[in-house]
Amino acid sequence: MIIERYYSSLTAVIGLVLLAILFAYIQPMILSPFGVTMSANQGTTLALAALAQLVVVLTGGVDLSVGAMVGLTNAIAATYMGTHPAIATLVIIGTLFAGTLAGFVNGLIVAYGRIQPIIVTLATLYIYTGIGLVVRPQPGGSVPSGFANALTGSWGYLPYGLIFLLVVVGVAWVPLMRSRLGRAIKAVGDNRNGARVSGISVARTELWAYTAGGFFAACAGIFLTAQTTSGDPTIGTSYTLNSVAAVVFGGAVLGGGRGVALGPICGAYFLSLLISVLFASGVSPFYQNLLQGAILVIVLAAANVWRLRTRHWLNVMSN
Amino acid sequence: MNNVSESKRAVALPSWLLQGVTISYILLVVLFALAAAINPHYASWDNIRNLLQIGAFIGVIAVGQTLVIITGQIDLSVPWNLTFSAILMATLISHGTSTPVAIAAALASGTLVGMFNSIGTAIFRIHSLVWTLGTNALMQGATLVYTHAQPPKVDVPPFIRALGAGNLWGIPVPLMVWIVAAIFALVILHQTRFGRYLYAIGNNESALFLSGVDSRKVYLGAYAISGFCAALAGIMLTGYSSQTYLGMGSDYLLVPVAAVIIGGTNIMGGSGGYLGSISGAMIVVLLQSVLSTVQIQEAGKNIIFGSIIIVLLLLYGREKLSTH
Amino acid sequence: MADSSESGAFNDAPALEASGIAKHFAGTIALDDADFSCRRGEVHVLLGANGAGKSTLVKILCGVQPPDAGTIRLAGEPVKLENPIRAAELGVAAVFQELSLAPHLTVAENIMLAHEPTGPLGQIRGRELRRRVTELFEQIGIDHIKPNTLTGRLTLADQQLVEIAKALSHDPKTLIVDEGTSALGQEEVRRLFDLLGRLRERGTAIIFISHRMAEVREIADRLTVFRNGTNVGTVDAADMDESHLVELMLGERIEQSFPERAPRPTDNDILLDVDHLSAGELLHDISFQLRRGEVLGIAGLEGQGQGDLLLALFGMVRRLSGDVRVAGKPVNLGSPWKAIRAGFALIPEDRKTQGLLQPQSLRENIALASLKNLSRGGLIDRARERRTADEGMKRMEIKAASMETPVAALSGGNQQKVVIAKWLETGGDIFLFYDPTRGVDVGTKRAFYELIGELARAGKAVMLYSTELSELVGVCHRVLVMNDRRIAETLEDTDITENAILAASLGVRERAGADAEPAATRNIGAAS
């Protein structure tokens, strides 16, 4: 483990800790098992969505369809679990498969169509939302209560949602990053041409990175289903931009090659906790969207302030 | 003039712009003929007038979007910029402000938001897709805070209603506004220095900068016009539906972009023009109109516009395979 | 490392043999029926001017690009090198000119990239990976680089060593080193050569590409010269005759002729006065004066600040310190538009990425920098624009069907003329030429030299940064030689000779090093 890589996560980690302390100070009730679980659960979907975003950002792309994939998988899970509660496990597997497939399609178009990822995923954002609306034209559906409790309950102070996140990280993220594919993902984002001459297939690496992104988005969709116990294909919209914000705040660089899971995960919990803190301190709920937008814009700008300091105008212009 | 053999190739190739525009107009005619063949009602003047009237909203937004896309950027802040401007105007009117002042305030608000877009893209160099979506979220938040999710109930003044739904000598007023906007766009793009700089940025920003042009100001202008157009469309839409509501901009995120790309403007910037965007807007309106007759309207719209963009990108927007 | 079972004498069977290799890129021929072979245990140097096809051959030999035609044999066996990993498995590895390292991976991760040792579940075995790298470092004598460092933290020279280690990690039977010494200092080159020597003894075939003749002379066993995508001759190092090699590289030697230059103006007004100009790490304390009618050359080894000096004068470098006066008036540089107002014009380094709008017409390109004068109230006066474009085309003798031709359809020389025509229209006084004749044919070069003379005679001032020594000697009145981003020496009139420029570039007195050094470091790649 190279400690230096985790430096970039520091802002998000410290920010999260300070915010949690502040929250406990304003609202001491929050230190109950219920309070901890509720706060954690609000951030877990975004944390998983941030992983989906991060794996794509590492290759140097951005996935604007993350929110749509979260919404689509949410719609699928809630719809089919509602009608076939007996085979909930199968539905979960099917949902994971659907999300992974959506990511795979993204990857296929980006890698082999050779189109800018950001505009491809903007278009698939619409397509996946559309498919979600076909599956579930109106919000609704239901989930077996056992399923919801298994993901959103807690064991004392330990929320099951956090365990779910850790399982996803442990079973999918860490092995991915420890594999040759994971190494290739980072290398492609860091030095695309260098990766190519080192014998890495850039197209194949991108394909599987977007596919992995779809899988993590599906995990987020499943958790969201447990949390809301219903399905709504348009519910995911906010996760697209918030996942970008979490990833950038968590120290990853749009442009690729740099970023570890710790930062974006903490960034995601930070962003969701921030909203709770503001409400707890009496800010009107109408400010939620405004604040989320403002945070995104500030985080993005802050990550690029160096451009104001650079000496060569040509460096300013290169993207 | 020197005539030399090496330039033969260049003469033989018709310009890219011509192709894209031509294709889009052929597509428009074919689509229209198909629709009319299935349902003769489509060919009626009433229906055509109706299509042109709805097309005007997209067409006006597409003026700004075309300018921005020619620079190689994009403006995804239109939906909530439009909504906020319209609601700002409606609120002012409900508080007794005179109509011209309210309209001016809406246009100024839209223009300012556009200028804010250029800060992120031109100075911080954040991909405009992400940054303008951020602006969109910001404006959504601003709208909710401003209205507490309750857009003002207001008697829309006759002038604004005329802008959105009126007829003058049998011609829809929105269509007239569109025509004026289109002439403005064509003059800007093809007759002015600013227009030349837009294409230059799209092709090679460094070359423009090294020619002594502050490209950041060019971005500023393009985004300001785009914001102005969004606000103008918001005013027209308020007149069209005689009210303001929170979802009034939701159709205008991807649809104007689709119109511009269908019209043959390259999403990577540097080529294309507004002539194509006109037919692009009409194609989009025609598709929407056909879709509105089938069941899965909302879902179908999403899927079809998303797919059209992918297909067009595969045709025009592919990056060259690196030879290095 | 390679098998050393057969140490000592080697048979003559080629370790690598390529025959009939062809490669085309969108209309241009990079390689045409090229043959090449390299024996075990030899260092085989590849020479050739820019665009001769060396780099393409290297890319084909290590599997980065497939050839359009031809066969490659390794130890007599025909092989297909589909990708770099396959090539490495078959025993061919390369050190690339442009570094292939990912700056945010560690040294060890980079070295083993794409051939990491993996366990049964596909997981990378980190400890094993580091062990192999440590072992490799011991073998090749790298002891100052830690395998766990992030690669981007290393100096350029150390990164180049890592790049070499990366190639050696494949245990190659054939090692290709493409400009592998460009970032290395003398000490490091020494170590690299020791290493190559040891590999050679073990029977590794080494293909070595360099433009530094001193290195070539030292390391080569045999040399092959490429020209226009084909092999024009292979010689033993023992029979090496440098002037003959240069002739082979250049083909028919065309002596560049220079127009007669006007006498150096010593009485004219001082147009540009630069006083203690500095810019952070880019430029240190630059002072000089330039008179009307003068042509001032800027010389030096690659990357000594020559380019940044021109860019700084053109306002492309921010936060300058020092004074710049034009015609006696202090000017504030900080952006190109301010520089242009002060009278500067820059013909930039790369016409493709900095000079031209490729898909747009000649007319639009020529008018671009002077649109302000060609428009009223923001509207472009088309008639005046056409007149301007027409004048520019005539003045520069640009060959094109019409002013509506896209510049992408023009030849390189004509494209460069378009860039210059653009600046003639702005009415600038001080022309900054950033290596303008690179990749331009002999006839067009002559036209440029004439133009530079004409500008000088018309009372303008010219600064010419060039990588071609003959050009500086043939055209300039004075030459500023830069070293370590400051002015090392100013040469005047008859003192300007290729030897003197090189000696000053290297920081040696001319008499001391005139015989050996200049010829040795001469960049033959740029001499065509």
Protein model, in words:
Chain A: It is a multi-pass membrane protein. Chain A: This is Putative ABC transporter permease. Chain A: Belongs to the binding-protein-dependent transport system permease family. AraH/RbsC subfamily. Chain A: The chain crosses the membrane at residues 6-26, 46-66, 86-111, 118-135, 155-176, 207-226, 238-255, 262-284, 290-308. The complex is a heterotrimer of chains A (319), B (324) and C (528). Chain A is mostly helical and 319 residues long. In chain A, 74% of the residues lie in helices and 1% in strands. In chain A, strands 1-2 form a two-stranded antiparallel sheet. The longest helix of chain A has 27 residues, at 202-228. The two termini of chain A are 31 Å apart. The model of chain A has no long low-confidence stretch (mean pLDDT 89). Chain B has one domain: Orthogonal Bundle (ABC transporter involved in vitamin B12 uptake, BtuC). In chain B, 72% of the residues lie in helices and 1% in strands. Chain B contains 13 helices and two strands; from the N terminus they run αααααααββαααααα. Chain B has helices spanning 8-12, 16-38, 45-70, 78-94, 99-123, 128-147, 158-165, 173-191, 193-210, 215-241, 255-262, 274-291, 297-316, and strands at residues 167-168, 171-172. Chain B is globular and about 55 Å long. In chain C, the strands form five sheets. Chain C has a six-stranded mixed beta sheet with strand order 6-7-8-3-9-10, sandwiched between helices. The interface between A and B is large, with 53 and 54 residues.
